[in-house]
Design brief:
This protein has 170 residues and is an alpha+beta fold. The protein has one domain: START domain (Alpha-D-Glucose-1,6-Bisphosphate, Chain A, domain 4, 2-Layer Sandwich). It has four helices and nine strands. Strands 1-9-8-7-6-3-2 form a seven-stranded antiparallel β-sheet. The protein is globular. The model has no long low-confidence stretch (mean pLDDT 88).
């Protein structure tokens, strides 16, 4: 029996979407206060939109993120992934990366860098490289990829805005 081209296009695939996101902001809050928020993974992570669960996996800085289901049409994704966090209170830096033994539906690496701005406030730089693995029919790849990339950028932008609001209101 011949395989129809349409049938091949409907076969499930896992699309890999990579997003490199950078942002920065200045706030009239001392670097120590900013660092206290951003190095507290639970507290800062709860600012990310759609977090369903965020918990430590071990005492080595590994945290598990579970996000609420998102999607459109037949493409739905409920992300669950791990990241390992390190922070340096001397330099006011927070770093994260995927664990060596696998992260889950996404891999995320990045950093928060906090520097004094000269006026008693802080200059904050955020960087994240996110690789999402999204199950979707092959024929939808050209539609799903740009929408997923835009959604990842939008969520990170909302995260930065929520962090900023908390810092400004503190």
């Amino acid at each position: 029996m011949p395989v129809h081209r349409f049938a091949l296009l409907m076969l499930p695939a896992v699309l890999t979407i990579e997003v490199d996101f950078r942002d920065e902001m200045k706030v009239a809050v001392a670097p120590e206060v900013v660092f206290a928020l951003l190095s507290d993974i639970y507290r800062s992570g709860r600012h990310f939109p759609g977090v369903d669960e965020l918990r430590p996996v071990n005492d080595e800085g590994r945290w598990r993120w579970r996000l609420k289901e998102r999607g459109f049409g037949p493409v739905k994704l409920r992300v669950e992934y791990d990241a390992v966090y390190r922070s340096d209170p001397t330099t006011h830096r927070v770093y994260w990366e995927p664990p060596a033994d696998g992260a889950g539906d996404m891999e995320s690496s990045g950093s928060w860098e906090i520097d004094p701005d000269g006026d008693g406030g802080s200059h904050i730089r955020f960087w994240a490289l996110t690789t999402a693995h999204i199950p979707a029919p092959r024929m939808m790849a050209s539609m799903v990829e740009p929408i997923a990339a835009q959604e990842l950028k939008r969520l990170k932008g909302e995260y930065i805005a929520a962090i900023r609001r908390t810092l400004v209101e503190s």
